[in-house]
C-alpha cells in the first residue's frame, strides 16, 4: 500500500506492505470490505465511501515528533486481483496551515 500526503506544498510518500498468513482469495474477499479497510488504516478516526473505490477519511498520523490529523480522499488504485492494490491518498492537515 502507498500513502501520499501533501505537506507544505510538497508530497510525502510512505510505502509499506503487509503479508497475511491466509490464502490470497480469502484476504481479497475481506480486505476490500469498508469496515475491514478502515481498520487496516493506522490512526483512522473516520471513514466514509463517497463513490465506488473512493473514500473520505480522517487519519491521525504520528511520525516522530510530528503529529497531525489529516483529512484525506482515498482512492483504490492499481488492483491486481487477488494479489495487490494501492491506496492513493490526498488531502491536508494542520501542518499545511
TrEMBL record:
InterPro entries tied to this protein: CO_DH_gsu, START-like_dom_sf
Entry superkingdom:
Bacteria
Query: Protein name, please?
Result: Uncharacterized protein
Organism of this sequence: Neobacillus cucumis
Show the taxonomic lineage.
Bacteria, Bacillati, Bacillota, Bacilli, Bacillales
Amino acid at each position: 500500500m502507498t500513502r501520499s500526503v501533501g505537506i507544505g506544498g510538497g508530497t510525502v510518500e510512505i510505502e509499506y506492505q503487509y503479508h497475511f498468513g491466509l490464502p490470497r482469495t480469502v484476504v481479497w474477499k475481506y480486505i476490500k470490505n469498508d469496515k475491514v479497510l478502515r481498520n487496516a488504516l493506522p490512526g483512522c478516526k473516520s471513514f466514509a465511501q463517497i463513490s465506488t473505490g473512493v473514500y473520505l477519511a480522517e487519519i491521525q498520523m504520528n511520525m516522530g515528533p510530528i503529529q497531525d490529523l489529516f483529512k484525506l480522499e482515498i482512492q483504490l488504485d492499481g488492483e491486481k486481483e487477488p494479489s495487490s492494490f494501492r491506496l492513493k491518498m490526498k488531502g491536508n492537515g494542520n501542518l499545511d496551515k
